[in-house]
Amino acid sequence: MAVNLKGRSFLTLMDFSAEEIRYLIELAKDLKKKRQQGITGKSLAGKSVLLIFEKTSTRTRSSFEIGAVEEGAHVTFIGPGSSQFGKKESVCDSAKVFGRFYHGIEYRGYAQKTVEDLAKYSGVPVWNGLTDDDHPTQILSDIMTIEENLRKPLSEVKVVFCGDIRNNMCYAWMYGAAKLGFKFAAYGPKSLAPSQAVLDRVYPVAKASGAVIEWGDDEKLLEGADVIYTDIWSSMGEEDLIPERVKLLSPFKITPELMSKTGNPNALFLHCLPAFHNFDTGLAKEQYELGYDIREVSEEVFSGPNSVVFDEAENRLHTIKAVMVATLGE
Ligand code: CP
Ligand code: NVA
User: Fold this and answer.
1) Which domains does the chain have, with CATH numbers?
2) Most exposed among 166, 182, 185, 252, judged by the fewest C-beta atoms under 10 Å?
3) Is the pTM of this model over 0.90?
4) Residue-averaged pLDDT of the chain
């Protein structure tokens, strides 16, 4: 049966079959090719799309905005504190209002329940642009980037996520691996263990797909990796935890030495971005002066030949456009 995602929300990869996820990635590859030839569609013509950002963003916001406009939609942006949403008006009431105005809604913020409630009460497709627990559009882009850069089937790929292994990115990877059936290891301190609820959710799905999902602080997990992935050590909203995180996560910083422990000189380096890899950002500089080195990756790796982080960033646009076209497009 042909895949049809019309009218569906995109809240987590756990709601989608492997075939549906594959469809979105192939659609993104096709949209990328077309854009490179100067061809954009009209599949969202006449549609109004709302972007709600309770947390900041560069790539996700740009991808939703450009992706929607290139397909002919009108876009409204609501930033933190610029509407009644969630403060003077409940999520449920706001969702009911938005559903009367908009044909599709993107949400970036805190609780996964908020994005779920937006979908439940608005009655239109809702897309998760990152919550405390998940970042599903990022995984589409990451997998697309891996496939563009590695000459082997995804089922034979091993991805190792290093660092804060109980954050939204690590969980999103676990969901992606469980659904699509590849090897995934989360390498980080035991004190930041992934939540048992997440593990209980992914293990049965992984068993069915043939995925191998492991976690722990044993550097043996790095062996045989095709992809080394990391993320910032203190996610948005957790900046108070920087001192503690620097102490816990410095041993998991991505350096040439860590890369060499994969035993694979061709292992790719990926990062969702934004990244701390030098002192060109205000926060990294400020924290360094306070005695905290928050760089999760060395400049050598970040800017080295195996790094595909900017291909990955570009693919956010094509994959997010694919999600909107598939769920809302004509
Ligand atoms: N990777 C990612 O979500 O980037 P932004 O925070 O810039 O959207
Ligand atoms: N874990 C990070 C991801 C940023 C794209 C955060 O939530 O801040």
Assistant:
1) 13-134+314-325 (3.40.50.1370), 138-313 (3.40.50.1370)
2) 166
3) yes
4) 97
